[in-house]
Amino acid sequence: MITPEKNLWHCLGTCQEGGDIISWMMKSQGVSFRHTVELLREGDFTSLAAQPVKRSSITKLPTPLNASAEDQALLIQVVSYYHQALKQNPDALAYLNKRGLNHPEMIEHFKLGVANRTLAYRLPEKNRKAGAAIRSRLQTLGILRQSGHEHFNGSLVIPVINHGQVLEMYGRKLNDNLRKGTVYHLYLPDPHQGLFNLDALERNKEIILCESLIDALTFWVAGFRNVMASYGIEGFTKEHLGAFKHYKTERVLIAYDRDVVGEKAATALSEKLIDEGIDCYRIAFPKNMDANEYALSVQPASKSLGVVIRSAIWLGKGKAPVKPKSQPGHHEQKETATKNKTDQSSSFTAPAPAALARPCASAAEPITLEDKTQPLTKPLPAAVIPAASPS
What we know:
This protein is of the alpha/beta class. It folds into three domains: 2-41, no CATH class; 71-187, DNA primase, catalytic core, N-terminal domain (DNA primase DNAg catalytic core, N-terminal domain), CATH 3.90.980; 198-357, Dna Topoisomerase Vi A Subunit, Chain: A, domain 2. It is built from 15 helices and twelve strands. The strands form three sheets. It has a five-stranded mixed β-sheet, with helices on both faces. Strands 4-5-6-7 form a four-stranded antiparallel β-sheet, covered by helices on one side. A three-stranded antiparallel β-sheet has the order 1-2-3. Helix 1 packs across helix 2 and helix 12 crosses helix 13 (301-310). It is elongated, with a radius of gyration of 25 Å. The chain starts with a strand and ends in a 34-residue tail after the last helix. Residues 323-342 and 348-391 have low confidence and may be disordered.
């Protein structure tokens, strides 16, 4: 018996079961709750007629992937699917908002996405020839695991795209309260490839280098577009170094987390870069903070991040190098031409005023740009200090 005005049904036979339209679809089509929601979202009401209850082995949703596409084309299709999914996913948008990253231009520019299990629902089942073929390829690429589940399930997905090629993908779990042992940071299974925000290298001689992609996006959203990221504290690759040398990078401002492992990694990296003739400075956040935490704690982020950039500490021996002639990056040139003050660059200027050059406050207390603070390090040398262009 069906009651249309209430969207309820009840079986008068031996099972005596009943429920709403969702339970009807689950029972009649043999699909999961999440799969049912996707079917209804797509407007698939063709399966509402009663049928024998069994698990369906034929996909009922349109497949967004072209099984005949080459690997790169297939990865681009996956990135595109995740990207469109994010725009309609309240949880993912809420996570970005929580991290201060709900920025439409950034989302579009870096093709951010979300993996929410719906891609797998749109693939032919593995007991079908087409399903086995496409799933095997996605497993080889690292999108699906051997279990058939999406590798980045439940994660914000940030692809690393260089010259139209998807070379890496990073996933950050949206939920911070998952079971013990859950890995919150995921990458494709192969060794790291590609450089996040390669445009920064092509347009600037000075680079802010973060420990994570989330931190790099934090600088980018605040207007500091000359930012890149390692893949964690041990994720500065030969490709990074080779690109720095190829593009003749002059200065790197290391913005790793200010914890024990972050400090150790920053010191080791600076030694490697200085040996290659690249000047290094350390952006020092309050103890046990990373760039994103700091930017969220001290608003507006465009100013607070400018403070730590201008207060960056020279990591070389002796005095800091003499200030080179200023060479505005691509975004600075664009800003001058268009009078758009959104973009900023961290290119050097004369030493910052004492009020701006002082180190940041301890994370134990509320932080504002006017707070009195205690130095995190020895006083800065009276030499060139990295500085941000006015916002």
